[in-house]
Design a protein that fits this description.
Elements: H1 2-7, H2 20-36, H3 42-47, H4 50-68, H5 71-90, H6 92-103, H7 106-111, H8 119-146, H9 154-181, H10 185-201, H11 217-222, H12 224-237, E1 241-242, E2 246-247, H13 252-280
Length: 281
């Protein structure tokens, strides 16, 4: 018995170490899996395609004249902020998809395969970046059809898109944490409505800060959504005045502040997300 026990082979390692190159290839494969799943969930496609278009149309043509006096001037002011707001809501699909994989056991099956441990989560986040880029350029195209014009140059526009994607990448860790700790996907969606709506609406996405009550203005100015919106307006519209009172500040300060916010969010929520995921699985 002793000899037989000693001769018994050790169990194979479930997740053998893989090279960085193999891990990247596996991550891209899982990211593609997440992207093609949109075909089976048309509601998700509507959320990051149709819903933001409705926001642009409704706020421009229903409230634009009352807020700015002109729908064209309001579109120039509001479109960059609406793109920022939509970016934040799309990040919640990272948490929703991750929660579905966890509750249905898909994540455990993926981890049992000889792939990098970080590939499933990284694949989700990369797929989110692709969806973000699609939504950003879709809203820009709709805005240009409605009369929005880039007041700077192509490089400034690409800088604004890159800044939003960096912020989306950082904020995705918030969604990952919610997706891991939530019991079901509905709880993740509930967080999106109860937490993100106040954060995005208590900002200057839809109206300039100087039109708000004095006690509210410092809160709005400190909101990272306001800071990122200011940076994107300056990069897209230019350091100029929209109409008479719609001043757009220089892009340098809000862009740097947005990057600082992104780094702080990632530094806090990325370790928390990884810790929570290890506890759950």
């Amino acid at each position: 018995m002793t000899t037989a026990t000693a001769a018994r082979p050790a169990p194979a390692e479930v997740n053998p170490r893989v090279s960085i190159g193999e891990g990247i290839r596996q991550t891209l494969t899982l990211a593609w899996r997440t992207i093609v799943q949109v075909r089976h969930n048309p509601w998700e496609l509507g959320d990051f395609s149709i819903q933001p278009i409705m926001f642009v149309l409704l706020f421009t043509y229903v409230f634009g004249g009352a807020i700015a006096g002109s729908t064209s001037e309001y579109l120039t002011f509001a479109l960059p902020g609406i793109i920022v707001m939509n970016m934040l809501f799309i990040t919640m699909y990272v948490g929703t998809g991750l929660n579905i994989d966890l509750t249905k056991g898909v994540f455990d099956r993926l981890r049992s395969l000889p792939i990098a441990r970080w590939a499933p989560m990284a694949g989700r986040i990369i797929a989110d970046q692709v969806k973000q880029a699609w939504s950003i350029f879709l809203l820009l195209a709709i805005g240009m059809i409605l009369g929005f014009r880039i007041g700077t140059d192509v490089w400034s526009l690409l800088a604004a898109v890159g800044l939003m994607l960096v912020f989306a990448l950082a904020f995705s860790w918030v969604s990952v944490l919610v997706g891991v700790v939530a019991k079901d996907p509905e709880k993740v969606q509930l967080f999106g409505f109860t937490a993100l709506f106040p954060v995005t609406f208590v900002s200057n996405v839809f109206a300039p800060t100087n039109t708000m009550p004095g006690w509210l203005q410092p809160i709005v100015e400190a909101n990272p959504v306001t800071i990122l919106s200011n940076a994107c307006r300056a990069l897209m519209v230019g350091d100029d005045t929209i109409g008479t009172e719609w001043h757009v500040a220089s892009a340098t300060t809000p862009a740097v502040q947005s990057l600082i916010w992104a780094a702080a969010i990632a530094a806090v929520f990325a370790p928390l997300s990884v810790w929570a995921l290890r506890r759950r699985v």
